[in-house]
């Protein structure tokens, strides 16, 4: 390999094209490099080889990952907050709740929160975005949040759970917007019996029904306390799973019709994608069921018995959602089997037609082969029918009769 070509390979324009946000073509970059002496065709050939790899790697972006890559370094002390470069900017939305009035502050400051705490009213502090670790630490100090709880809040790879501490409890669930599985985000709820602090990864959630209930003058969500408010949040988050699963169910029904009528390879890819989405939902629901079961049995000291009654209803919703997920997963697996069976049946039909055609032409080819032998016609032993005046029409008639007879036989035996 020429030295300059080796240098070009190490510099790798195709590497830059794979990692660049502009998405420039490696072949286009290599074309300019091809003008250099001693690189030429080698550059273009290498780029052409690796260009499909770049395109294939690009297709994997945007998928919902099963395991988050955001975690503390190995050996880090407990309570370490790790900054996530992908995190959204941190904002605070403050809601001050009393029995007869609700005040909402869209862009609240720490000073506003501290002032509201001194008023003696109940607060809902909704933190959106986890990019500002310093602000998260300040909120933790303001509400006396344990270091381990703050670590679980900042590390968004937690499974749904409930942890109790001396003065507060931390609940972690996975929230969807009700439309797409790709909208999954970690949602943490911290409450101390009076105030509720929620942490979500980015702006936009499914909690607008809760806010509307808070704005209504007469509603028990204002008077039942923080535990009931936490129940209302959890119930709304779980309710958002239903429309998302209904969308998946409708798509599975459409795929069933398509596979039954005209199976296509792209249907298999979509089925695998739906099974992956259902697995993501299942991983969010199973631990949430355990968490709700513990909370409904009043194992959490901050949950009064009258709220545990409502949490049991939310627990039933979780069981219902899990049943739907399992049903859809079995349906998706059955549709994959149906696709393979349909393709196999289609192939068998094609092979049957080809076999019948071959069977019909075997005797015809045999006769044509015999009459096509080029022996001298002078001998009386060498096919005297070659001299017949009507030999050709007779031969064709025999072939047609044989073909029609075989078709009739196949029809009688129900092979056609």
TrEMBL record:
- Transmembrane residue ranges: 350-370, 390-410
Per the record, which residues fall in region Disordered?
61-84
Q: Where in the cell is it found?
A: Cell membrane; Membrane
Please name the PANTHER family in this protein's record.
Answer: CORA FAMILY METAL ION TRANSPORTER (EUROFUNG) (PTHR46494:SF1)
Q: What is its main location?
A: membrane
| Membrane topology according to the record | Multi-pass membrane protein
Instruction: Give the family per the record.
Output: Belongs to the CorA metal ion transporter (MIT) (TC 1.A.35) family.
GO CC annotation: plasma membrane
Q: What is this protein's name?
A: Magnesium transport protein CorA
Q: Which UniProt keywords apply?
A: Cell membrane, Ion transport, Magnesium, Membrane, Transmembrane, Transmembrane helix, Transport
Please name the InterPro entries in this protein's record.
CorA_cytoplasmic_dom, CorA_TM1_TM2, Mg/Co-transport_prot_CorA, MgTranspt_CorA/ZnTranspt_ZntB
Q: Where is the composition biased (Basic residues)?
A: 61-72
> What task does this protein carry out?
Mediates influx of magnesium ions.
GO molecular function terms attached to this record: cobalt ion binding; cobalt ion transmembrane transporter activity; magnesium ion binding; magnesium ion transmembrane transporter activity
Q: One Pfam family name from the record?
A: CorA
């Amino acid at each position: 390999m020429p030295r300059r070509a080796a240098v070009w390979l190490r510099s790798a324009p195709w590497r830059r094209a794979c990692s660049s946000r502009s998405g420039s073509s490696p072949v286009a970059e290599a074309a300019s490099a091809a003008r250099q002496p001693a690189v030429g065709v080698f550059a273009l050939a290498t780029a052409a080889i690796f260009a499909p790899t770049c395109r294939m790697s690009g297709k994997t972006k945007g998928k919902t990952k099963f395991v988050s890559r955001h975690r503390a370094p190995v050996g880090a002390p407990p309570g370490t907050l790790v900054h996530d470069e992908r995190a959204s900017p941190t904002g605070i939305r403050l809601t001050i709740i009393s029995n007869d009035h609700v005040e909402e502050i869209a862009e609240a400051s720490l000073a506003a929160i501290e002032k509201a705490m001194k008023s003696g009213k109940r607060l809902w502090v909704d933190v959106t975005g986890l990019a500002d670790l310093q602000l998260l630490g300040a909120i933790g100090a303001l509400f006396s949040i344990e270091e381990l709880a703050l670590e679980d809040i900042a590390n968004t790879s937690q499974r749904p759970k409930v942890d109790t501490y001396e003065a507060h409890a931390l609940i972690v669930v996975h929230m969807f917007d009700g439309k797409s599985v790709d909208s999954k985000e970690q949602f943490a709820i911290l409450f101390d019996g009076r105030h509720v602090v929620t942490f979500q990864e980015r702006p936009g959630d499914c909690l607008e029904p809760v806010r509307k209930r808070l704005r209504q003058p007469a509603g028990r969500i204002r008077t039942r306390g923080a535990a009931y408010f936490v129940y209302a949040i959890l119930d709304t988050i779980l309710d958002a799973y239903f429309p998302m699963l209904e969308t998946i169910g409708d798509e599975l029904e459409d795929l069933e019709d398509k596979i039954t009528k005209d199976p296509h390879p792209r249907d298999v890819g979509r089925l695998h994608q739906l099974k992956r989405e259902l697995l993501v939902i299942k991983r969010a629901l199973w631990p949430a069921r355990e968490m709700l079961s513990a909370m409904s049995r009043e194992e959490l000291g901050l949950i009064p018995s009258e709220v545990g009654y409502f949490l049991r209803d939310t627990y039933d919703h979780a069981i219902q959602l899990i049943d739907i997920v399992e049903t859809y997963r079995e349906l998706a697996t059955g549709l994959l089997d149906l696709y393979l069976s349909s393709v196999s049946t289609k192939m068998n039909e094609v092979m049957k037609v080809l076999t019948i055609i071959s069977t019909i032409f075997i005797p015809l080819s045999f006769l044509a082969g015999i009459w096509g032998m080029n022996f001298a016609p002078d001998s009386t032993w060498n096919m005297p029918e070659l001299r017949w005046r009507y030999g050709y029409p007779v031969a064709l008639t025999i072939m047609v009769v044989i073909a029609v007879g075989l078709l009739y036989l196949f029809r009688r035996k129900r092979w056609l």
